Amino acid sequence: MHRSTPSTRAGKSVQDGGQAVRASAARALVPVITAKGSLSDLDDHQVVTRDRALFKAMCYGVCRTLPRLEALAALLLKTPFKARDADVQALLLLGIYQLLYLRIPAHAAVGETAGAARQLGKEWATKVLNGCLRRLTRESAALQAEVDQDPAVALLHPRWLLKALRQAWPDDWRAIAEANNQPGPMALRINRRRGDREAYLARLVESGIEARLCTHSPDGLVLEKPCDVQALPGFVEGDVSVQDEAAQLAAELLGPALAPRPGGRVLDACCAPGGKTAHLLELFDIELLALDSDAVRLARVEDTLERLGLSATLVHADATGRDWWDGTPFDAILLDAPCSGTGVIRRHPDIKRLRRATDIAKLAELQARLLDNLWPLLRSGGSLLYATCSVLREENDEQIQAFLERTPDAVVTTPGEVSWGRAVGAGRQLLPEPDSHDGFFYARLRKQG
Length: 449
Fold this sequence. Notes:
Blueprint lengths: L18 H15 L18 H13 L1 H11 L9 H16 L4 H14 L5 H23 L3 H4 L4 H10 L4 H8 L6 E4 L6 H10 L4 E3 L6 E4 L16 E3 L2 H14 L5 E5 L6 H9 L2 E7 L2 H14 L4 E4 L13 E7 L14 H4 L4 H16 L3 E11 L8 H10 L3 E3 L9 E3 L2 E4 L9 E8 L2
Helix pairs in contact: 1-2, 1-4, 1-5, 2-4, 3-4, 3-6, 4-5, 4-6, 5-6, 8-9, 11-12
């Protein structure tokens, strides 16, 4: 079966890339395929400007289709590469990906990929790669049919994750997996302090950028095709930000607690990279403390707020402790908890390789510690919004149910009459949808006085 992902198809421009860009992509993929790193450092790799689109398309595409590529590689190789040759393995995966998923002529995909082994100082591998990829061009249909007999390969997910999705969502697991395999759309959030989305939509049209209004977020738009942020009118000036529609709903859910209390104290407990932090400041007159345990990611929050002309108190600290707290209760707390990221796999496909089944219990334990530590910091009558970008119930409705059972003064106020997601326990779950929002969970709780 030949699959092609429309948004990762390349035209003539991708054919301009040669051995150097493929060697760079192989180096970038080694940490992922060896489960020692992520795609977060792609910008650190030196790639000429004309090849950057191809470089990213190949790196993300390989991660998105990795189970299938590795199954095919296993059939093509007589003996596996040694561990020290993970870069050559990455080249083979890149070659398979180009042949099956990109509009690159077969001779270029084979020749340039095999030749890239010389760029890695491993000329011996050119013959091996050439033979494997040429065999794939000859026997493509039969080889793909053979590996696709395994559902984990056909659906491009590790077995443990497919099992978890099936247990959590017996009627939706396949649709979730298929949505994960498509790149997510590029969604924008307008800065309401500087205009409304209808006016900004008109500016996009004037700039030749096609977009539509989001269905659920009153501040959101979705681009028909992703573009460089520098091409967005007013981006540098702070008129607009990139943020998925599901993530934009956090500010709407906290609105009832914040709008009636100008100057209210708000804690954004795990704030990086700062999208929700900024949205809250755009909408409400509040005193916001933004906390994160990762100094590098906290610096990104600072950059975001500076671009948007917003201010908050940024603190580098761990939200499982309280050494950063001055003792004054908060009117509202946003806990966008660390999670498995299973609702945003389409944006971070390396999650499928880097996440392990054993991680879920550890994450659930951390989430429980955060809830228990932060709840006493909330004033009587205040609201806590719990959020994750997960679709696994251990991290979501089951987590909140356990918290409610041990927290007598917590009352559920998650809205039921909304157009998005589905009621699940004390919260609402959004599942990833093609051309729409990511997977997300929200539960809103009020502290009884």
